[in-house]
């Protein structure tokens, strides 16, 4: 039988790896966006996206842009591929984080 600590550590490790993949892909999306669509880059607070003084309402605009799949009408195929990848990795990373947090409660409740 696998111990609860080993299970939590494995799930945490997988979650951290997927979140880092998501953030890395988001950074490359912003770099591609800076070249192919400077207006959108400024609208989503591109230069200050990963800073502590970044504008959250502008960052949420990028979330809604990708969630609504508004990138499908874009002229640059590389940008569209990056948006699809960011969307898939966001779903994957958020799912793994939810599984990790649920497993914390399950392990604590069952005492594994």
UniProtKB/TrEMBL annotation:
<keyword id="KW-0997">Cell inner membrane</keyword>
<feature type="transmembrane region" description="Helical">
    <location>
        <begin position="89"/>
        <end position="110"/>
    </location>
</feature>
<keyword id="KW-1003">Cell membrane</keyword>
<dbReference type="Pfam" id="PF10625">
    <property type="entry name" value="UspB"/>
</dbReference>
<feature type="transmembrane region" description="Helical">
    <location>
        <begin position="6"/>
        <end position="24"/>
    </location>
</feature>
<dbReference type="GO" id="GO:0005886">
    <property type="term" value="C:plasma membrane"/>
</dbReference>
<dbReference type="InterPro" id="IPR019598">
    <property type="entry name" value="Universal_stress_protein_B"/>
</dbReference>
<protein>
    <recommendedName>
        <fullName>Universal stress protein B</fullName>
    </recommendedName>
</protein>
<keyword id="KW-0812">Transmembrane</keyword>
<keyword id="KW-1133">Transmembrane helix</keyword>
<keyword id="KW-0472">Membrane</keyword>
<comment type="similarity">
    <text>Belongs to the universal stress protein B family.</text>
</comment>
């Amino acid at each position: 039988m696998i111990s609860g600590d080993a299970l939590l550590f494995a799930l945490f490790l997988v979650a951290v790896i997927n979140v880092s993949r998501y953030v890395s892909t988001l950074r490359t999306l912003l770099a591609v966006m800076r070249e192919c669509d400077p207006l959108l880059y400024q609208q989503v607070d591109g230069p200050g996206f990963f800073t502590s003084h970044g504008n959250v309402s502008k960052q949420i605009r990028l979330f809604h842009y990708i969630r609504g799949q508004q990138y499908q009408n874009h002229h640059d195929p590389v940008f569209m591929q990056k948006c699809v990848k960011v969307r898939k990795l966001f779903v994957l990373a958020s799912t793994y984080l939810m599984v990790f947090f649920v497993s914390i409660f399950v392990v604590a409740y069952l005492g594994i």
